[in-house]
Write a structure and sequence with these properties.
This protein is an alpha/beta fold and 337 residues long. It is built from 14 helices and 10 strands. 44% of the residues lie in helices and 12% in strands.
Amino acid sequence: MIGAANRTSRIAFYLTPQLSFIPFASAIEPLRMANQVSGDTLYEWTLVSADGSAVRASNGIDLAAAHGADTRERYDAVFVCAGVNVHRLQDEAGEAWLRQLASTDTVLGALCTGTYMLARADVLDGYRCTIHWEYLAAAREQFPNLVISPELFEIDRNRYTCAGGIAPLDMMLCEIRNQHGAALANQISEQFMHERIRDQNDRQRVPLTQRIGASQPKLAEAVSLMEANIEEPMTLDELSHHVGLSRRQLERLFQRYLHCVPTRYYLELRLGRARQLLLQTSMPIVDIALACGFISAPHFSKCYRDNFSLPPRDERRRAAGLLATPDTPPGSPTSGE
């Protein structure tokens, strides 16, 4: 729990360059509304940055910080707010501050990809955590000793981590409910026309069964097997055997509901994972190829170029601003997974 129920909880949001604005707003707004609806100052919040100067969010809005990472102010909780390219962030001052806070009873949390910074500051060891689904694979590769779940948010003792989008809204509503009662949390949820307060057992992404209907469990099982076997892909015969269908039956299911053959879906799934690792980690390309089930770097490069219209090396250079090429719409698995 953030602070005590009988006094104002003081929360700091640590801003990093290019932070995602929606998760940031989704965390602050329920706190503001809690004060408004209750008629009391239940929460106070402050913005902090590495050097105390304003930070520009990914949408171009500048957010003014009140303090730098050298602040002596005491907070009940500090949440790291991050966004794209968090893996390139170099913030020794911020990480040192987080480590110092970890030695106190301060709650440490992260919004969207902010978990990456907590992990790099070594303040998540022994805690269960989560991160935006686009960074799940990269974070697991980068921090293999951490338990990183695909849940909407995770609250493990004094560590609060959540995915992007409006996941912070649910996490904060759950915190308000735990601290000040369900009636207040429900009133805030109604103000935001948020029909249901999701809890930490909710998954980040819409399950395949909800998109294609619950009447196709065999197809959902096949896709789950593919997602769980990226590094060592299963053959179509193995997939068919495990789900109890013939190859032809499985192919028909994929064609009817996902509009592609199983092998193509599997390839695009692996390439999507490879693209995440390519853009979100510094792993060598040959290691990414092996981690995503390709027999060699040249084979991986060919498949990648065919799918995304440029080779992996150029994709990484373009993301780093070292390659001036026209923007190419990124590919993705046919299903959107």
